[in-house]
Amino acid sequence: MPAANQVIAGMLAGTDIRYPLPGPGHPLLGMRLADAPVMADGRGLLMTGAGQDMLVKAAAPWSGRIRHLQRGQGEAMFLRPDGYVAWAGSDPAALVTALTMWAGRA
Question: What is the pTM of this model?
Answer without folding.
Answer: 0.77
